[in-house]
Amino acid sequence: MIANETIEKAAYDVMTKAAIDIPEDYLNGIKGMVDMEKGDLSAFVLKAMIDNWEAATEDRRPMCADTGLPRYFIKVGNEAKFDGGFVGFERALRSATARATHDVPLRPNRVHPLWRHDHNNNVGLNAPEVEWSFEPDADWIDITTVHKGGLFGTDYRMLFPGDGIDGIKRFFLDTLIAFGKRGLACQPAIVGVGLGGSKDICMVLGKQAACLRPVGDKNPDPKVAELEDELKELGNNIGMGAMGFVGSSMCVDVHVECGFTHTGGMPMSVHTFCLSSRRATARIHADGSIEYRTDPKWFTPYMRRETIGWDSQEAASSKSA
């Protein structure tokens, strides 16, 4: 039985790690862009950001003054057992958030939308957000935290089937150009694209694609993976580089996630996960031990299933495909 105290410890630890330590996949992606960047100012910014990340890790301070909006993505194994039920689980997450806000420290960004008051701990109405998913044949719990900027960097459009791939590319370019010109994204960013679903699911898929897949990860559908490569190339050829300066480093990677949608539409969302790509994951095993990583491993074969049910044979065929 996993104790609530263990859940809170894991959540607190990943809150700290996400705020301070840049994930290796993102850091390596940025380092790979430095020599390829054509703009002098953009190249300078990239090098300065790498220096900033190294200083943050050495000094154990947040890598960015705006520590974003801390949130959780929780994957619970179907066989996992834990104290307090899901109410106790959420209390542990909220307590970890409040403690980390004080201790790391995180900037207390959460305020009431109308009255603008806050509790100085990033906890309040519907905050922090917690998204749940489940995994068959597992007795562990994965706690992932993402500190994503909450101001800009997201857009949505209802496309139609006739718009096709060209329509997807057009909206993608329109969005990135608008973000770059108006300072609505801190690039180079991991850009997530949600295609399909209802409007809310489309937005969720795009945000998860941006925040929960590491740089270099490809969609298992080869045609979707090809679209990811095409969008990345397009994004890096609009003439914008790091932090909006002239250059060629808008996208460190592009990830696309799909959901079945209404036959008459093709909703699309675009999300940028900023230059401070903040995420960390803790896996709590059934014996209470905790291991930490930076790849959330969120999009499992089970998460991408199209079938009604699920069994071990389906899992095996998905892994071998």
TrEMBL record:
Residues 9-282 form the Fe-S hydro-lyase tartrate dehydratase alpha-type catalytic domain. Keywords: 4Fe-4S, Iron, Iron-sulfur, Lyase, Metal-binding. The keyword Lyase applies. The keyword Iron-sulfur applies. One of its GO terms (molecular function) is metal ion binding. InterPro entries: Class-I_Fumarase/Tartrate_DH (IPR051208), Fe-S_hydro-lyase_TtdA-typ_cat (IPR004646). Belongs to the class-I fumarase family. NCBIfam families: ttdA_fumA_fumB. This is L(+)-tartrate dehydratase alpha subunit.
